[in-house]
Amino acid sequence: MSGGIGSRLWPLSREDNPKQFHDLAGNGSMLMSTVRRGLDRTAGASSVYLIGSERHAGRVQEQLSALDLKGGQAIFEPVGRNTAAAVALAAQVTLEQRGDGLCLVMPSDHVIETTAQFWQTVEEGVPAAEIGQVVVFGIRPTAPETGFGYIEVGEGSDGAVRAVRRFVEKPDEATARTYLDAGNFFWNAGIFLFRASVMHEAFQKHRPSIWEGVERALHGRCEEDGAIFLPESLYETLENDSIDYAVMERFDRISLVEAGFRWNDLGSWSALLDVAATDDRGNVVSGDVLAIDCDHCYLRSHGRLVSAVGLKDTAVIATSDAIFVAPVAKSQNVKNVVSELERSGRLEARFTPSPDKVIEAGAHRQRAWQWLFGEALPLWCEKGVDRIHGGFHESLTFAGEPTGADRRMRTMARQTYAFCVASDESWDGPARDLIDHGLSFMKNGRTDRGGWSAVLSPKGEVIDPTEDFYDTAFVLFALAHAHRCGHPDALELGNETFHFLENHLEDTSLRGFLEAPGGKRVRRSNPHMHMLEALLAWHQATGDRTYLRQASRIVDLFRSAFFDTESWTLGEYFDDDWRPAEGEDGQWTEPGHHFEWAWLLIGFADASGQNDLREIARRLYATGTAYGLNRWTGLAYNAVSRRGLPLDRNSRAWPQTEIIKAAIALDHAGGPDMRPEVEERVARLFRWHLDPAPNGMWIDLVGEKGAVATQDVPASIFYHLISALMLYLGSNARSGP
């Protein structure tokens, strides 16, 4: 079983990188150590199955790819439902694929020494399991440990197998001392041996609903890359309960075998003192650590020098963004730190920075400058401009030829914005002419009441006259930047468009805007985000705080409807009363929009003084990175569910630009040093989207395993690229690297 979020070993282990993926005892990752132990059964070969979180599927499969599971496979749960569901799942897969065989269930994040002694202990329990007992394995306690569950056995049992009297929850210290003195209490190792049909019998007697729910989910499974994936809609309905509570405390045929192996569940930093190599003063030292006159300390560093003098019985763990210090005896209370970080919205609760070392700030500055000013702007001011009919081409082939696609108003506005940015940076190309060129073509789509048509033909004829809110937001965004560049018509066009917005798109309930005039369809947060972006641009261009007051209404809607304070996720689709849409749409979230909102909220906080928005921005970033990144490529998925499961496993270019902007904004907003994260994200943008494309172009869509999944180059993405890379280059970007 490979679940959990690893909060007890924070700051090294976090929700996006739990402890089973770490090498904590010097034997490789705990997950791989457990799988290899399972494959090394001394009494004969056994198949190994792994039950894990779908959120970590890519990472698990990557590690398992080098191993022969001897007929076993990975099984991925879409949501965590504790150990009862996992054990029921193990029993059902065994019955289905192996008949009524013996099943050994064990956690993937325990340290066990040695493999031979482990299997010797397990084999002692086999005869009891064969005749219908559920066998558990107990560790003879060596201290009044309060972090473990206990098992009481009866007196007078014969041989290695002893009858279990009861399971006891984690006790206080005084109670734990009485257990230690009694001599017939054992720590519960969380390892179970049983015949599959016996576990079926136990569930049917004591918790049939869990067994039947797992059965339905298993029946609805799909298989991909040799692994089983269970349907979220069925699995999420299961009861969330442990196997101890659901079955073990009630079943009447349970026996215990005392473990003949060394065991540690690494439930705290103090536990690592028992399994890792120590120096001659009892210290565990890992990483770049200088320890002088220290005794019985756990000192670990990732990415920075830690120096300690005169410490005794102390744990110090340093990562690139956090340091935890506590007496060894109280290190298990790190869970209180994690709870406080969660409460206050700190990134460090869920998010693991990409590198373990500091990367030089601006490491990719020269490449970014060359791509923008030496490749992209020259290409798009030539190949991307329609000199015959006006406007900009909607897309190009990789050979630099226009595809002839119809022209969306949003793309014309975005390209106009891009040349406004180039003008601001004193680019030596024809930026001002191109701004006028873009606006002139866009005017072909003006409607009689001051709106803007959604789609034009390459010749400028209206194809779709819908006055779309999303397009209107981008028109206003482009006009703000054109006004800032001194375009003579931009201010008047902007005022007329705001008048149209107020009269035809504003919701009469004063809760946001309609998707289109008179529209009563599914409503989206995304167009409102871009309207916020436009209003901030107008405030920056004019200094008029009227735009901030309008922006504050969108921020209020974000607080009340778009953002879920429990899951830290951002909804995309809503009904007309701003309740999450039914079905998958209501669960749909986009990591790219988490990052984009984070960037914009910090900008609004800077302008308005609503400083609590910085905390919310950190939460958005933390959730986007914890749940939304593809572990194969490191790129943001296109979409995930509110529970963090991939819904669209491909990666477009634009979310990768928005994570750069958000990381830069968060770095300037206080909190952890985000500069290494910025450099990592810029590197991935070039690695997957820019460098594989012809000069000045981009790969818009990358598949889950990194394959190119697009045939042309959409011009609409240039807006994202130029805004992110200009921000990365900083002020006076044109001055060069």
From TrEMBL:
<dbReference type="GO" id="GO:0005525">
    <property type="term" value="F:GTP binding"/>
</dbReference>
<dbReference type="Pfam" id="PF22640">
    <property type="entry name" value="ManC_GMP_beta-helix"/>
</dbReference>
<dbReference type="InterPro" id="IPR008928">
    <property type="entry name" value="6-hairpin_glycosidase_sf"/>
</dbReference>
<dbReference type="Pfam" id="PF00483">
    <property type="entry name" value="NTP_transferase"/>
</dbReference>
<dbReference type="GO" id="GO:0016853">
    <property type="term" value="F:isomerase activity"/>
</dbReference>
<dbReference type="Pfam" id="PF07221">
    <property type="entry name" value="GlcNAc_2-epim"/>
</dbReference>
<dbReference type="InterPro" id="IPR010819">
    <property type="entry name" value="AGE/CE"/>
</dbReference>
<dbReference type="InterPro" id="IPR051161">
    <property type="entry name" value="Mannose-6P_isomerase_type2"/>
</dbReference>
<dbReference type="InterPro" id="IPR029044">
    <property type="entry name" value="Nucleotide-diphossugar_trans"/>
</dbReference>
<protein>
    <recommendedName>
        <fullName>mannose-1-phosphate guanylyltransferase</fullName>
        <ecNumber>2.7.7.13</ecNumber>
    </recommendedName>
</protein>
<feature type="domain" description="Nucleotidyl transferase">
    <location>
        <begin position="1"/>
        <end position="279"/>
    </location>
</feature>
<keyword id="KW-0413">Isomerase</keyword>
<dbReference type="InterPro" id="IPR054566">
    <property type="entry name" value="ManC/GMP-like_b-helix"/>
</dbReference>
<dbReference type="GO" id="GO:0009298">
    <property type="term" value="P:GDP-mannose biosynthetic process"/>
</dbReference>
<feature type="domain" description="MannoseP isomerase/GMP-like beta-helix">
    <location>
        <begin position="287"/>
        <end position="341"/>
    </location>
</feature>
<keyword id="KW-0548">Nucleotidyltransferase</keyword>
<keyword id="KW-0808">Transferase</keyword>
<dbReference type="GO" id="GO:0004475">
    <property type="term" value="F:mannose-1-phosphate guanylyltransferase (GTP) activity"/>
</dbReference>
<comment type="similarity">
    <text>Belongs to the N-acylglucosamine 2-epimerase family.</text>
</comment>
<comment type="similarity">
    <text>Belongs to the mannose-6-phosphate isomerase type 2 family.</text>
</comment>
<dbReference type="InterPro" id="IPR012341">
    <property type="entry name" value="6hp_glycosidase-like_sf"/>
</dbReference>
<dbReference type="InterPro" id="IPR034116">
    <property type="entry name" value="AGE_dom"/>
</dbReference>
<keyword id="KW-0342">GTP-binding</keyword>
<dbReference type="InterPro" id="IPR005835">
    <property type="entry name" value="NTP_transferase_dom"/>
</dbReference>
<dbReference type="GO" id="GO:0005975">
    <property type="term" value="P:carbohydrate metabolic process"/>
</dbReference>
<keyword id="KW-0547">Nucleotide-binding</keyword>
<dbReference type="InterPro" id="IPR049577">
    <property type="entry name" value="GMPP_N"/>
</dbReference>
